[in-house]
Amino acid sequence: MAPEPATTQDPDTMDERVSAATRELATFVSRTRTEDLPADVLHESKRCLLDFFGTAIGAVHEEAPTIVARTMQAMGGQPQAAVLGTTARLRATDAALVNGISAHVFDFDDTHIPTILHPTTPLYASGLALAEWRGGTGADLLAAHALGYELSARVSVALYPEHYDIGWHMTGTTGTLGAATASARLLGLSPALMPHALGLAATQAAGHREQFGAMTKSFHAGHAAEAGLLSALLAEGGYVAAPDSLEGRRGMFSVMSTRSTPEDLTSGLGDRWEIFRNGIKPYACGVVTHPPIDSVRSLGSEHGVRPEDVESIELQVHPLVAELTGKTNPLTALEGKFSVQFACSIALIEGTARERQFTDANVVRPDVRSLMSRISVVPSDQVPHEAAIATARLTDGRELTIRVDAATGTPGNRISDEELQEKFHDLVDGILGRERAELLATRVWQVDRATSVADLIAAATPAG
């Protein structure tokens, strides 16, 4: 039973002080009919859902989500929603937190390429928990994702790059607004209530890039899901936020960035969809490392280069590669995800850089360390962040240059539905078993016909 709105706000009348951009976004999210969403947009949301289940279930037994799940269980509460990949159930907000951490802990979740936001983890971690607890069809879930993606990506575009450059982690900040949007949509909040959900989310938005390479980075994604869901629930119950929480003098844009472009919030809204700029990761590490990984892998796959053939490899990359993944002496698997030299070395040695390549043992292997020492990184403003140039000098005197302009998984070089499902099985089969994983994948592709998310959750739960 939904709580009665408090008398402190009128759910049918939007505060006249709400900015024009927030007003337009709130109305768009609340009033757009699911049947009016483009079919290709909803298909992208299905792809994101399959990828989310893969990353969340695949990492559920990692240390970070295990610690948080154990802590939340000890605190008690109604068992409202599932911890995916387990038989455990928690309060909906707690389940959103744990599932969000799981889905991000491998750094294998999707990315809005222009802003490096990981959009889907907060959206589906909150949306699934809410839909399981309060009800919602599969089509409702897809629509909530599509619209939440649109809002969080547009806010990210309006803040990027300054917001990111001064140290904020987009997934923890704008991801919170996305989760609030998706949750508010699932709850059926009116346009008048939507700004309150966004304001509550904006005041909780947090996450510092100093945590990259630490366990706490994944907490950003989980907290975004938890806080976004709570924001929507509080707005539904009558909790009031300032009317201009985004663009106000002391609002999110002014406080959390040195520059913003509010016009990007609504330009082309409903005609140009940000979800088409989504990238699905083929490698389990920071997305900025994917172009150089592609280029180094091509040395092996296209030219037969072996690690022992390499005298040196020079990587020309966007400056963010060195800034975000410049760890030259990683000592753990997690640190290895933020070392472009390690990621490229293991990719050439083993042919790929999926989660099983990122282990504590691999980062200190002598053959890996040897190749890492022969790889140099040259940042260049002339190289887009989706591109890289690898120049290899070989022991036989040859010099090979490989240029990648669109890394695998990015909009310019998409992975197919079949390749995405292969990634999903690689992550999930060991947790659920092949048969149950296939059932879950089938239900994801058919989710738009589901009258509830119950069958999805059942398939995402281990048998017995």
TrEMBL record:
Q: Which PANTHER family is this protein grouped with?
A: 2-METHYLCITRATE DEHYDRATASE, 2-METHYLCITRATE DEHYDRATASE-RELATED
Q: Where is the MmgE/PrpD C-terminal domain?
A: 283-445
- The MmgE/PrpD N-terminal domain is annotated at 23-262
> What name does the UniProt record give this protein?
2-methylcitrate dehydratase PrpD
Which InterPro entries does this one have?
MmgE/PrpD_sf, MmgE/PrpD_sf_1, MmgE/PrpD_sf_2, MmgE_PrpD, MmgE_PrpD_C, MmgE_PrpD_N
Write out the GO MF terms: lyase activity
- Name the family: Belongs to the PrpD family.
